[in-house]
Design brief:
By secondary structure, the protein is an alpha/beta fold. The chain folds into two domains: 116 residues, Alpha-Beta Complex (Aspartate Aminotransferase, domain 1); 232 residues, Type I PLP-dependent aspartate aminotransferase-like (Major domain) (Aspartate Aminotransferase, domain 2, 3-Layer(aba) Sandwich), CATH 3.40.640. It is 46% helix and 14% strand. The protein has 14 helices and 13 strands. Strands 2-10-9-8-7-3-4 form a seven-stranded mixed beta sheet, sandwiched between helices. The chain has a two-stranded parallel ribbon with strand order 1-12. Strand 7, helix 7 and strand 8 form a beta-alpha-beta unit. It is globular, with a radius of gyration of 21 Å. It starts with 11 loop residues before the first helix and ends with a helix. The structure holds (2S)-2-hydroxybutanedioic acid. The site of (2S)-2-hydroxybutanedioic acid (LMR) has 6 residues, from loops. (2S)-2-hydroxybutanedioic acid binds next to loops.
């Protein structure tokens, strides 16, 4: 049977991770995979998470199964974190999932189950794994213009023109904040216009929010998701705890389905639990438990928020520094958008050949579309990157 298997295309981000590991150069710089690193190049365990682990170690008395939807205290805490009081709790069905990717996968599965004709509209560009999972599930995708490589901002007119091609029952995949891979985000009024368009047509929004707290702060980063949740009849939200709690390998995420019609709640909740059972049965508990302990303890929550702010402000400072260095070296504002972008990533708008030269000649690793992970830099490597960009003639 195995002879019928075909080789699968390599995931570009993960392949880059490996290439970086294999590079023997001491001064190499990793701006690839979206993992936070402190100025020493370490991905630390956040203080509050470590303390939650200690407390939970003392408290935990069994490893027996939780429920199919995971621990309800985790769902309650995450619904509060992402949605605030934008919608009533009894309008939200939710299940814990293995990471944000697990939530994305379950959401696509649910869409396909509910409406096999639904097409999913995705931003051009989007996180490559969105496209890969959609293809794997045989779901038709339509891309909408999103990034304006001339300005480094959002091509909002192009986006709206392409979304006008939606049909009732189609899905629009949107990044709640900190767009991956571009770093360019919609303004509040632009979000309102997208909401109105989706409602006029009868399209369903799906939000992927994987970087809450990395852009303008926990509350500001959730504003768009909350506006969609309160402004549309139904919405799917895939949220990740990998980045903002720094618990990547614990695989912790949540899928929420919000409906204005409360009558939908029980059947939607049942379908989400059914999908968990079909795909992996019970979701992993450890990471979810740590998140729950942090969010339900006043002292740990305050400490977590403070550390997250340090992380966010550190990335903003690096953005400013890189943009200023490039302004000095190029004598132009061509890279001014880096300071305007938000989150972990910026797409620099370099050609694949230039990206390749940066890797070969300078040991600087970024994704082939010229996405950089800002957190892979520190104040000493920013000038090196800026100099290298100028040297390769970008
Ligand atoms: C990224 O975009 O680099 C992260 O979301 C990690 C991943 O799984 O691709």
């Amino acid at each position: 049977m195995f002879e019928h298997l075909k080789e699968q295309p390599k995931d570009k981000i993960l392949a880059l991770m490996q290439a970086y590991k294999d590079d023997p150069r001491d001064d190499k710089i990793d701006l690839g995979v979206g993992v936070y690193k402190n100025p020493q190049g370490v991905t630390p365990i956040m203080r509050a998470v470590k303390e939650a682990e200690r407390r939970w170690w003392d408290e935990e008395t069994t490893k027996a199964y939780t429920g199919l939807a995971g621990d309800p205290a985790f769902s309650d805490a995450m619904i509060g974190l992402v949605l605030g009081d934008a919608v009533a709790r009894d309008h939200v069905a939710a299940v814990a999932t293995p990471g944000g990717t697990g939530a994305v996968r379950q959401a696509f599965d649910l869409i396909h189950m509910a409406n096999p004709q639904a097409r999913v509209f995705v931003s051009d560009p989007t996180w490559p794994n969105h496209l890969s999972i959609l293809k794997h599930l045989g779901i038709e995708t339509v891309s909408y213009r999103y990034f304006d490589s001339e300005t480094g901002g959002v091509d909002f007119d192009g986006m709206m023109a392409d979304l006008a091609g939606l049909r009732a029952g189609d899905v629009v995949l949107l990044h709640g904040c900190c767009h991956n891979p571009t770093g360019a985000n919609l303004t509040g009024p632009e979000w309102q216009a997208v909401i109105a368009l989706m409602n006029d047509i009868g399209a369903l929004p799906m939000i992927d929010i994987a970087y809450q707290g990395f852009g303008d702060g926990l509350e500001a980063d959730a504003a768009a998701t909350r506006a969609v949740a309160s402004g549309c009849p139904e919405v799917l939200i895939a949220a990740s705890c990998s980045k903002n709690f720094g618990i990547y390998r614990e695989r912790t995420g949540i899928l929420m389905a919000v409906a204005q019609d409360k009558g939908m709640h029980a059947v939607t909740q049942g379908n989400l639990a059914y999908l968990n059972r079909q795909n992996y049965s019970f979701p992993p508990d450890h990471g979810a438990r740590l998140v729950s302990v942090v969010l339900h303890s006043d002292d740990l929550r305050a400490d977590w928020q403070a550390e997250l702010e340090e992380v966010r402000n550190g990335m903003l400072a690096l953005r400013e520094q890189l943009s200023t260095e490039l302004r000095k070296l190029t004598n132009s504002d061509r890279y001014g958008f880096i300071a305007q972008h938000r989150g972990m990533f910026s797409r620099l708008g370099l050609s694949p050949e230039t990206v390749e030269r940066l890797r070969k000649d300078h040991g600087i690793y970024m994704v082939g579309d010229s996405r950089i992970n800002i957190a892979g830099l520190n104040k000493d490597t920013v000038p090196k990157l800026a100099q290298a960009i100028v040297e390769v003639g970008a």
